[in-house]
Each structure stands twice: as structure tokens, then as C-alpha cells.
Specification:
Layout: H1 3-6, E1 9-13, H2 15-29, E2 32-36, H3 38-43, H4 46-56, E3 60-63, H5 66-74, E4 81-83, H6 89-97, E5 100-104, H7 107-120, E6 124-129, H8 141-153, E7 157-163, H9 175-194, E8 200-204, H10 206-211, E9 219-222, E10 245-250, E11 253-257, E12 262-263, E13 269-270, E14 275-280, E15 295-298, E16 301-306, E17 314-317, E18 329-336, E19 339-341, H11 343-350, H12 354-359, E20 367-369
Parallel strand pairs: 1-20, 2-3, 2-9, 3-4, 4-5, 5-6, 6-7, 7-8, 8-9
Antiparallel strand pairs: 1-10, 10-18, 11-14, 12-13, 14-17, 15-16, 15-18, 16-17, 18-19
Amino acid sequence: MNSQDKYSTWVEVDLGAIEENVHYFLQTTGRQFMAVVKAEAYGHGAIQIAKTACKAGASWLGVARAGEALELRAASIDEPIFLLGSTPPARMEALIDANVSLTFWSEAQLADISRAAEKVGSRANVHLKIDTGMSRVGVKPEEASHLAQEAVRIPSVHLEGVFTHFARADEADPASTDSQLRIFREIVSSWESSGLRPPLVHCANSAAALRRPEAWYDLVRVGIAMYGLHPSSACKLPGVVRPALTWKSRLAQVKVLPPGRGISYGHIYTTTSEERIGTVPVGYADGFRRVDGNEVLVGGKRVPVVGRVTMDKIMVQLDAIPGAQPGDEVVIIGSQDAERISAEDVADRWGTINYEVTSGILKRVPRVYA
């Protein structure tokens, strides 16, 4: 039984593409590879993607929440896990016990981590986050050395790494990233001279892994690009890095409606002539946005979504596909014959970015791996 027979709508994930994409970055950078699998691996499914990435050579996994890290450990994934964001003090003991490396940027966090490590009876691995210009979380550059020295002095803490995050590495203008990298490099250089440099220095996200070799340091942290999605319109992937995700459904019903018939809630669309209207069992509760101008693929052609998107269903105008029948495949993201709708196409239509499109596909949509 195939996916089309079992599900109303589903996501197909090409694990071969994930493996090939990991190989590409390992070969081009020659550095350790951190597979960023936060947010359910950007909608691809965290556990399966984590296992696949590690099999392909990823030496680290990056997550954003305590629960994400512990879920990977519960799935018998033993590779190093790095929690990129903040950690609630109540979760620190469990994370340290699970050998998850933690981020810190303040003395208060360091004290909380130290206490938790002492209770567990294990040494906590920590990475210091430096805010070099993202203006989100992180210690100020001028305070970084003092905080690192504090970490080194605490027996229950191991300063495993230091990192920063670029705000504009995916843009055409390099000035902002140049500035951030200069600040970070000066700190790392001073630590190398003083013997404070930790084993892992990292700052390259997907965009920097693609085009900033001077930012590669000890490892690269690759998220969006590992899934074959462009970091931005100004930072495109090479052709060998390919998308892993396809989102599909099928026609549930096809009917011919007379002119003047209103479609869906509010009747914002009315047939102007006799029209073939298909119903597709996917809606905003699956992550399909309630906006105007949506299209899907049927019979290898783009067809318009008409009427309002509902919680579980959309309606499409099928006059261009006279042979369309119930059960026919519908592609929301992906290819069908020679036509393709990319995650970037959908993002443009929805007024957002490809990150949000794929990570917004809800869990009730089954992921099917091949």
C-alpha cells in the first residue's frame, strides 16, 4: 500500500537527498558538520533526519528546545547534541544527564548550570554565545573573555565551545557579516594567544557555509541548506544540493458546477460559467495558508485554488485538466511531470520565507520516508 492509499495528505521526504546534501558540505568545507534539526527538522521530521544526517557523516545535532534534545536521546541517538537556545533551569539536570551541550551568555546561567551539574554528578559541556551584531541573545563582546574565564574556573563545567550567529549572511551586501566576523575573530585570536580558546569555535550558518570559508572554523552549522532549500533569493544553493521535501494530496471529489455557484465559505469565488471544481483534503490546519492566489499541481499543470481555504479542504478549478478524476495526485510542494512548485514559490505567494513554509506543515500531516 502506498502513501496515496493510506493518507489524505502527506509529506514525502527523500532521505537520499539529505545524505547527499550532508556529503556536499562535508566535502566542500572539510569541517565538522552540525545538522540543525530544530523545529522538527524544519518540518521534515527530527528523529529520522537526525539519524540520516549522522549516518551521512554529521558529527553534531543542533536543536533549540530542551524537549527536542531529550526526544532525540529517547530515540537512541547518541551523537553530540547542542542546544542552541536558552535552557530553563528546571530542565538542566535532565539535559546534563543526557550529555547535551548547553548554551550560556551570563553568570546567572553559568551558576544554574554548575549547580545542576553538581546535583547530577556530571560535568556540563557549555558553549558561550557572543552577540556580535544579531542583537538577540549572547554576551557583549567586551564581556566575553571574563565570562569564559569564569566558566574555566568552575570544576563542574567544561567550556567546550564559543560561537556567534550572523544576522545577514544570506544577503548580497557583505558589510554586516564582515563586521560580525571581525569582532568574533578578534576575540578568538586573543583567546588563542592566552590559552583560553575552547575545542570548538563555530559561527557559520548555511549561508556562511556556502560562501564564507573564513567563517568555517571548527564546524559549520547547517540547517535550511541541508534540506535543499535556498537560504535566500540572494544566496542560492548549487544545483547538486537538492530539496528533500514534497507535499502531496489527492482529489477527493470532482464535480461540474453551473454558472453563478458560490464556492466555499463566504462565496468569495463564484463560477462564471460551467466549471469543473475539485476538492482536495488539505487545509490551514495542515499548514496550507489561508491566502489568495494559491496554486497546486494536478495532471502536470498549475491549477488555481478557488474560494476560501478551509480547515481541512481546498477547492481547485480544473477546467485546464478535463480528465482529472477523484484519486488523482495533487502536489502542493514539489514536482509533477515537467512542472514544479517550490517551497520558495509558496513562500513568495504567502509573503514569508521557505523556512516558515516547511516548518509550518503540521504534525497531523504524516511524513513518509524514502
